[in-house]
Amino acid sequence: MNRLERLFKDKPEGLLxxxxxxGYPAADDTVTVLRELQAAGVDSVEIxxxxxxxMADGPVIQQSGTQALNNGMTxxxxxxxxxxxxxxxxxxxxxxxxxNPIMQYGVEKFCSDMKDIGLxxxxxxxxxxxxxxxxxxxxxxxxxxxxxxxxxxxxxDERIRLIDRNTSGFIYMVSTAATTGxxxxxxxxxxxxxxxxxxxxxxxxxxxxxGISNAxxxxxxxxxxxxxxxxxxxxxxxxxxxxxxxxxAALIKQLGE
Length: 257
What we know:
Layout: H1 3-10, E1 15-21, H2 30-39, E2 44-48, H3 59-70, H4 75-82, E3 93-96, H5 99-105, H6 107-117, E4 121-123, H7 129-143, E5 146-148, E6 150-151, H8 157-166, E7 171-174, H9 188-198, E8 206-209, H10 215-224, E9 227-230, H11 232-240, H12 244-256
Parallel strand pairs: 1-2, 1-9, 2-3, 3-4, 4-5, 6-7, 7-8, 8-9
Helix pairs in contact: 6-7, 11-12
């Protein structure tokens, strides 16, 4: 049982997963952010790989990726920063990034390095399901790396069941077909989508992300899945707070108000 499986077994509901961009605000903040999030009781973390053309990301995460790249962040540098992280960080760590940098790095080398460091999964928003099944799943299985797939309100039931059958870790439920970014509340259509997925009896746990920025959306996501993923709100706080510790404290306060 890996860390993700253990997490969902030990805490099947009320989970908080947080996304941030590696190398932002400063190049050497990567491990500091992990330490502060763990100290605050966050359940898992998605470490964003900065990319120059992040098509699913809104302006906040786009800007953080641009700054991280300007800070000199690369995938090789990120792995170097994370190589000794496991003795101090026990929560599940998931990489999140686009296909191009991973292909440039080499998919097999990428998965091998993830295993060596102790990283638990990877989310690649622009990885087609068919390519995952034929090319990427065998490599992930070889190295024990879980490829986590996204579903949206537009994803058909048939495709959702295929994803559920052929992935593990969790399913990333995107709350909207739009890009990442804060929202004050979820629309009735989004809540209908949550209800539809809840009724499908999927075997994988689910986390809801995109648009979670306040107590209302956070509670709604937690009520309709195993937990919530917060990204843009935290990245914005990292850019505006005097320290990483204060950004984390502000996030926890924001979600509880």
